[in-house]
């Protein structure tokens, strides 16, 4: 057994996020399971870039209210206790609403040598605002 009493909080890198995002890494993918897990906290209007995962991703919303959007324009509003499963290869983004914080556990099974995430371009303010409007 390994008892971890503290995980350092890191700022989400600007090349992957818009706005203020904070990460607490829970598990880094290692063989044989390759599990990746992190607690991710978004301030209002903060969000991920577009991205996809080789083996999909599961998000468990722990606090606040947020949005998860896909390239085809599908947007879901999420809140604490809800789960979103993004299938393998689906380009998507997630983040907080304009007036609330949002936190989630991000979990995925990586690939040999990493987490299998492909990071893409930022979600534009126009795309974000359209997602907000679609959910009102």
Précis, in short:
The chain has 136 residues and is mainly beta. It has one helix and twelve strands; from the N terminus they run E-E-E-E-E-E-E-E-E-E-E-E-H.
Keywords:
136 residues, mainly beta, eight-stranded antiparallel β-sheet, globular
Describe the fold and architecture.
- This protein has 136 residues and is mostly beta strands.
- The protein is 7% helix and 47% strand.
- The chain has one helix spanning 125-134; strands spanning 9-11, 17-18, 21-27, 35-42, 47-48, 51-53, 57-70, 75-79, 83-86, 92-96, 102-109, 117-119.
- The strands form three sheets. Strands 1, 3, 4, 7, 8, 9, 10 and 11 form an eight-stranded antiparallel sheet that branches. A two-stranded antiparallel sheet has the order 2-5. Strands 6-12 form a two-stranded antiparallel sheet.
- Strand 3 and strand 4 form a beta hairpin.
Low-confidence stretches: none
Counting copies of identical and different chains, the oligomeric state is: single chain
Q: Tell me the total number of β-strands.
A: 12
Question: Which class best fits the helix and strand makeup?
Answer: mainly beta
**Kindly, what is the distance between the CA atoms of the first and last residues, rounded to a whole number of angstroms?**
47 Å
Q: Rg, please?
A: 14 Å
What percent of residues adopt helix (DSSP H or I)? under 10%
Helix-strand blueprint:
Blueprint: E1 9-11, E2 17-18, E3 21-27, E4 35-42, E5 47-48, E6 51-53, E7 57-70, E8 75-79, E9 83-86, E10 92-96, E11 102-109, E12 117-119, H1 125-134
Antiparallel strand pairs: 1-3, 2-5, 3-4, 4-11, 6-12, 7-8, 7-9, 7-10, 7-11
